[in-house]
Amino acid sequence: MRATGRRWSEDVVKGVLALFALVSVATTVAIVVALLLPAVDFFSQVSLREFFTTTDWAPLFSPARFGVLPLVAGTLLITVVACLVAIPFGLGAAIYLSEYARPRTRRILKPALEVLAGIPTVVYGYFALTFVTPQLQALGVPVGIFNALAAALVMGIMIIPTIASLSEDAMTAVPQALRDGAYGLGSNKLQVSLRIVVPAAVSGIIASFVLGISRAVGETMIVLLAAGGMPNLTFNPLEQVQTMTAFIAAVGAGDAPHGTVAYNTIFAVGLTLFVMTFAMNLVSIRLVRKYREIYE
Amino acid sequence: MSTLATSTALRQPRKRSRVLGWAFLAYLLLSLAVGFTTLGALLVDVLQRGLPFLDRILIFEVPSVDPNIAGARPAILGTIYLMGIVFALSVPLGVGTALYLEEYANRDRWYNRLLEVNIQNLAAVPSIIYGILGLAFIVRGPIGLGFVLLSGGLILTLLVLPVVIIAAREAIRAVPSSIREGGLALGATQWQVIWRSVLPAALPGMATGTILALSRAIGETAPLLLIGGLTYVAFNPTLLGPFTALPIQIYNWTAQPQEQFRLLAAGAIILLLALLLTMNALAIWLRNRYQKRW
After folding, report:
1. Quick one: which of A41, B31, B153, B166 has the fewest CB in 10 Å?
2. Where do the domains of chain A lie?
3. Shortest Cα distance from B257 to chain A (angstroms)?
4. Which residues does chain A have within 8 Å of residue B45's beta carbon, measured at their own beta carbons?
């Protein structure tokens, strides 16, 4: 009798824990529903064709125009410039930490680098607006108070630790025997790093790039503060742009009346953003799993 | 094969490869320096500008249109309350989920694998999307709490939950299976083993991960903008009343055109960074003090 009583309570515990686990499933479902329902409403009034092919974004004006391309272009511009900073320096930092640094140095440098990832994005936004832009102007770069360049540069720095940390994990997982074999054949450290370790860890490294890109696409506060508030179909980083995230924040924090088409644009743009980052996250998760399977 | 490799290695001019090696090392060091230099510039800039404004007015007064008497008290209290809510909710939910995944779930079942991928993906969903979720489900919609502090706390909880789960799982995984087997061999049930052996052993790791997750929640701004954090609050926040938080106050002051408000923002940033630094130091101290090596 006592044994069955215990087993019953064990099942209750397991059930409660499984219920807790369901919260995160419910979160995903809720996100999809929260985005999809108003977006369906939105697309019943604005055609998909207008949304994805026209180039004028002015949802709060009358007559309102709903071409999302300027926001997508703004997001891409910022993302590309940020990655031009984050990818070479992130990978360089990872190679140093994994192949060159002594264990003691690595133990100090790695957490120190991660401090960069822990600084709140609103602080980076402040820094881009009040420090980086004036410095650019002092250097003679023709930028206004709001510009894509300062926001993107600071975002690139912010993403360095994401890329460095994940790439370093992948490189550390490469078996020592591969390095020893290459050294035995007369390679030097540079050759071992670039021709053995990096290719062997490539799926993890690409995963880190994808995750970095996904963070850049989804980042809000830096662009909201430093890149300006004007939708602008341009690929010139010296101009001001509005990204998808900045648009959502600007309209969501303002007072577009609930239930109007203008209000529903938040959800249409949010859905576009979610689909883009979701696809990238899945690719990254899959790639990480691949290198784990190979070496661990 | 090996003679071929040797002969190409010999044909390469020695000096050139050494110069290349130095150039490469210089590039690697530059990569690290870029990050640290920026961090240094940021800290110096913020300290230089903000320190004179980090005074009693900033900490104890309410926001105002006059920068000389404007303070951040409601924002500071808002952030403290939000932390309380996030901590109280995310720890049981996060640890519970981690225990389910590590101790109970059968990895071969598709739904458990889906659960794992789902959590990894949630950890990388842009924070502004959580703001939209909050707007649609918690502020309005089925839960309908309105633009209040509790809504903000719930959203931040969902936002950091994946991070707490991932950290807790790692801590649980680090407990060797011999601990569990010992307990089971003595006749304990699975839950008794978890409650009396696994959890105490995993506690330091979990505490560290949770504190780091909380420090992410502290700095989060974008989702709170969507659920009403930008309102003008000149009184102490309550659970079901309008609210603001420190990062929102920083955003608000930075977005003002007057230089005076930006200096106030710098002062508030020092407060925020000091809070984060304290929490990180606590996390590192806990890890070093209590973590066991098996």
Report:
1. A41
2. 2-45, 65-295
3. 11
4. 127, 130-131
Contacts of A249 in chain B (CB under 8 A): 128, 131, 222, 225-226
φ/ψ of residue B47, rounded to 5: -65, -45
A100 touches chain B (CB under 8 A): yes
Residue A261's nearest CA partner among A124, A66, A74 is A66
- Count of alpha carbons within 13 Å of B15, Cβ hemisphere only? 0
Query: Which residues lie closer than 8 Å to B121 by C-beta, 6 or more apart?
Result: A28, A278, A281, A282, A285
Cβ of A92 and B2 within 8 Å?
Answer: no
Peptide bond into B204 cis (omega under 30): no
Q: Does A125 touch chain B (CB under 8 A)?
A: yes
Q: Are strands A57-58 and A65-66 parallel, antiparallel or unpaired?
A: antiparallel
Indicate yes or no: CB of A100 within 8 angstroms of CB of B2.
no
The reported pTM is 0.90
DSSP state of A162: H
Q: Is A64 exposed, middle or buried (0-12, 13-18, 19+ CB in 10 A)?
A: middle
| ipTM rounded to 2 decimals | 0.90
Q: Is A126 in contact with B269 (Cβ distance < 8 A)?
A: yes
Distance of alpha carbon A286 from alpha carbon A207, whole angstroms: 8
Per-residue pLDDT of B54-79, as tens digits, reads 888 888 888 888 888 888 899 999 99
Tell which CATH architecture fits domain A65-295: Orthogonal Bundle (1.10)
Q: How far is A146 from B255, CA to CA, in rounded Å? A: 11
Nearest chain A residue to B231, by CA:
A253
Helices (H), chain B: 2-11, 14-50, 56-60, 73-99, 110-122, 127-133, 149-173, 177-185, 190-193, 199-219, 222-226, 246-255, 259-290
The partner residues of A66 in beta bridges, in order of sequence, read: A57
**Chain B residues inside the 8 Å CB shell of A115:** 39, 280
Are B242 and B148 contacting, i.e. CB atoms less than 8 angstroms apart? yes
pLDDT tens per residue, range A149-203? 999 999 999 999 999 999 999 999 999 999 999 999 999 999 999 999 999 999 8
